[in-house]
């Protein structure tokens, strides 16, 4: 019975593992945004920043602490006093102060009234939240770009394998014809050997492409955060070429990379203001209430009858701190912060140029790839016609085996060039969509 149950569970496991997941590009991207480690960590950064904001806000709230102490004084400190205080003028009397046991408990409060650094931190909190939100958006765009490029790369490799499989089948048919002719003395052995070599080369290419597909699929699953063992397939419609509308160059100031740098510039500005705040005075309210017990034994739970006396005391005040001179340390830190801001501003300018360049290059690649696709499609049609005619001529004895093999190679090469041209177009299309800041449209459509 146990063996049957184990066999049943194993059968279920095999059927589940054998299930193929069909992925559109939208499915692949959506899965990656939900499961890839970078996407999850980016969201955790947003959550963690909220806790940092709470920490900053806490500095503006009252800071309340409780304290307690218990002290044993085995040797009491003594002071020498004038004996006149005790009715013995002219003598010096040594008097011990305090009790052997002292216990205290109290509550203290500290409330910032004016602290420019705290106020600056509160203003920076909103900017830091926006920074991490933009950073999350940039992370998602990077994931989308990687997944899309790898998705199309896998598709092209699968198309190449389909072409090789078809070519292998067609070459096998030719080989059977040549073998029949050889068996009947109508063909030379060298012709049969050549066609066998051709089949062996195709089979080797198929194996290499299969290995490349496995590697590329594993890379795609990794970028998606999908278990590597999951079988996947792709719908044919995902690789159709639809000319992309080429508009005017987009405003680079709307790109996520640019917005992130500008938000970082704001944060550096607040950092500089926080350092400048060290020049400002600080004012805080302090208050405390304490209870003190003293006696010859442990004061806890003891009474005046035991020689232990308790008393309370309280204090309320203001603490004012005015910085005067710290060796120009603050000035040096302010200047360092200013250099950081100016350095980032140069990065912003360079990034803006790079984003403009991305669009121009992507637009040029799109235009060139469309021309290449049209040319390669026509070449593929011509190569197929030539192969068909050459095959008919070979069967009628009007063409040599060399002509047939050359025509077959030319047809396969034309088909491969066509799929490579489509891949180049699709990757350029992703780059163009990215340069326009519209990568999210790949999952919103």
UniProtKB/TrEMBL annotation:
It comes from the Bacteria. One of its GO terms (molecular function) is efflux transmembrane transporter activity. It is found in: Cell outer membrane. One of its GO terms (cellular component) is efflux pump complex. Gene3D superfamilies: Outer membrane efflux proteins (OEP). Pfam families: OEP. Belongs to the outer membrane factor (OMF) (TC 1.B.17) family. InterPro entries: OMP_efflux, TolC-like. This is Outer membrane protein TolC. Keywords: Cell outer membrane, Coiled coil, Membrane, Signal, Transmembrane, Transmembrane beta strand, Transport. Residues 334-393 form a coiled coil. It comes from Flavobacterium fluvii. Residues 1-18 form the signal peptide.
């Amino acid at each position: 019975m146990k063996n049957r149950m184990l066999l049943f569970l194993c059968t279920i496991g095999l059927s589940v593992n054998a299930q193929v997941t069909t992925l559109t590009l939208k499915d692949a991207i959506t899965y990656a945004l939900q499961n890839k480690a970078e996407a999850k960590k980016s969201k955790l950064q947003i959550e963690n920043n909220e806790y940092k904001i709470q920490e900053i806000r806490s500095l503006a709230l009252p800071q309340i602490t409780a304290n307690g102490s218990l002290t044993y004084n085995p040797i009491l400190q003594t002071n020498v006093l004038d004996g006149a205080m005790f009715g013995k003028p002219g003598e010096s009397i040594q008097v011990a102060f305090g009790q052997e046991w002292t216990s205290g408990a109290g509550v203290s409060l500290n409330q910032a009234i004016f602290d420019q650094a705290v106020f600056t931190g509160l203003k920076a909190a909103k900017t830091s939240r926006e920074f991490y939100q933009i950073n999350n958006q940039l992370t998602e765009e990077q994931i989308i770009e990687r997944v899309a490029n790898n998705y199309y790369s896998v598709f092209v490799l699968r198309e190449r394998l389909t072409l090789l499989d078809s070519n292998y089948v067609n070459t096998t048919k030719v080989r059977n014809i040549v073998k029949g002719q050889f068996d009947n003395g109508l063909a030379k052995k060298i012709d049969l050997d050549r066609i066998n070599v051709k089949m062996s080369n195709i089979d080797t290419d198929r194996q290499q492409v299969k290995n490349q597909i496995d590697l590329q699929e594993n890379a795609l699953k990794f970028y998606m955060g999908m278990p590597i063992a999951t079988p996947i397939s792709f719908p044919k419609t995902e690789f159709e070429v639809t000319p992309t509308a080429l508009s005017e160059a987009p405003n680079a100031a709307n790109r996520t990379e640019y917005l992130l740098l500008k938000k970082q510039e704001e944060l550096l500005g607040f950092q500089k203001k926080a350092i400048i705040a060290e020049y400002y005075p600080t004012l805080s309210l302090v208050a405390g209430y304490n209870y003190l017990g003293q006696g010859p034994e442990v004061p806890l739970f003891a009474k005046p009858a035991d020689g232990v006396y308790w008393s309370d005391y309280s204090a309320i005040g203001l603490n004012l701190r005015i910085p005067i001179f710290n060796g120009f340390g603050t000035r040096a830190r302010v200047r360092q912060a200013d250099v950081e801001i100016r350095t980032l501003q140069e990065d912003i300018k360079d990034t803006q140029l790079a984003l403009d360049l991305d669009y121009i290059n992507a637009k040029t690649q799109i235009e060139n790839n469309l021309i290449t696709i049209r040319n390669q499609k026509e070449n593929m049609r011509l190569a197929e016609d030539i192969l068909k005619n050459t095959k008919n001529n070979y069967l009628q004895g009007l063409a040599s085996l060399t002509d047939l093999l050359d025509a077959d190679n030319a047809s396969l090469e034309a088909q491969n060039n066509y799929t490579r041209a489509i891949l180049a177009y699709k990757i350029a299309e992703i780059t163009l969509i990215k340069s326009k800041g519209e990568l999210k449209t790949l999952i919103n459509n």
